[in-house]
Amino acid sequence: MSMLQTRVGLKLADCAVLPTYIELDELIASPEALACITEQSATRLGMLPIAIWPGKLKPILILACPPHADSIQSERVAQLVDDRFQLHFVPCVSSELGLVIKRLYAAIYTSQQLLDMSSLQTDKPASIDSVSDYPVHLVNVLILQAVRMGASDLHFSPQRQSLAIRVRVDGVLLTLSCVSGSILSSLLVRIKIMAVLDIAETRLPQDGQFRRIIDGHNIDCRVSTFPTVAGENTVIRLINAQKQLHKIGALNLPKKITEQLFSLVHRPAGLVVFCGPTGAGKSTTMFALLEQLDHGALSVMTLEDPVEQRIEGIRQTSIDASRQWGYAQALRALLRQDPDVLLVGEIRDTDSCRMALRAVSTGHQVLTTVHANDVHGALHRLQDLYTDNSALALGLSGLVAQRLLRCLCIHCEEGVRGCEACFGTGYQGRQVIVEVLEISSVLKSSIMRGASIEELHEKSINSGFVNMRSMAMEMVSAGVTDVQEVNRVLGIESTLLV
Ligand SMILES: [Zn+2]
Predict the structure, then answer these.
(1) Distance from the CA of 403 to the center of ligand 1, in angstroms?
(2) Which CATH number do you get for residue 138?
(3) Structurally, how many domains does the chain consist of?
(4) Rounded to the nearest whole angstrom, what is the distance from the C-alpha of residue 416 to the centroid of ligand 1?
(5) How far apart are CA 480 and CA 343, in angstroms?
(6) What is the pTM of this model?
(7) Are 272 and 319 found together in one domain?
(8) In whole angstroms, what is the distance from residue 451 CA to residue 168 CA?
(9) The domain containing residue 39 runs over which residues?
(10) Are residues 192 and 59 in the same domain?
(11) pLDDT one-digit tens code per residue, 259-293
């Protein structure tokens, strides 16, 4: 466990912009930043250190300050930190600053300290004034720790006697701690208050959200509760709202695949379908492809369920099927907006499939996803949803399937799997693997006359199609990942298929 606490991960900072304004009531303290300046100095100067980011020459210390802070105040801060940092000041509402400084300095605990307290239920430090403060601090440090580990989700899983607190990192759940079940209800009440949910409702699922500023990043926290016989299972999805788009180059794909993807999206019209399970990075690839389009000359619009990350230059819309605003309805209206390129989050019924193909036939480029494991499965799914083979053959320009493989940790010592940097897992970071099926004229005519998936499969192999497993095995040969990880993600290869 000590491994988890000592890590100061600033993974996030690699791809984000410095904040320009801070909402103080959403702030979660960064213990390292607070440690740079004493509470007395922070109070005297009216400046609150909130985060440390890596910088080019020296680390950047980010401080919240009143909107009209003067140069004398910033000089003083520079002296206090011995010029060890480059300083970045972010304005905030000054009337609250004094109280927030007091509150945050009073709450510097590691999650381990707080979890230890939960099992003992005694000896709370004097600065935690009341029992009610305890869940507040615990939820805050758990979110802080999860975000720093680069987790996508934070899970509170009640068991018969205990509560397992877990995080999903690089697609795999890791247990942070198993604590006494007695703190479950107070933790849940706190999370529900944060997400503006009904604290009395424990028998029905609920969902809500809140935002916190962690290490200077706005993190959107989407909360979902679900009743189980042991209590409410609660998951907080953590989304870095400021994270910048990946460029296609950052996906580190083989040149040939990048070229295939480019050729698919640069056609004037056509349907490009992505598939792969949830969390396989489909959106990242699709947005990376949209990013490199000429946003000045093209109108790019999206329909998403819901919009998770706002992107400059693209008009995004959340759909809400419960209010008669599903993909098909929204797409119908969207086509009157004169778009060039559309991203439609998912094709899940005949209606939305028909609308997407209609959009293509009227000269639009459409990127979308379907539920399928690989490109041939996706093709089968489309044939299932929409029986007009010729419309499908004419509209479809390509299919893309993908997965994320965990990479072998480069920090582990020779011959030892697991270190501090990889939380003992032996893996750190992920690499996308992709298979692309371009619908050639041969495939088009086969689809048009309703050829079976087996036949289409054979035809695509003959035309040089390379599947994901081949790319994965290349990654293994290159020492990027290992066979166990490939089998975990793609399953053990069956000799019956392919
Ligand atoms: Zn390692």
Answers:
(1) 22
(2) 3.30.450.90
(3) 3
(4) 8
(5) 31
(6) 0.83
(7) yes
(8) 41
(9) 30-105
(10) no
(11) 999 999 999 899 999 999 998 999 999 999 998 89
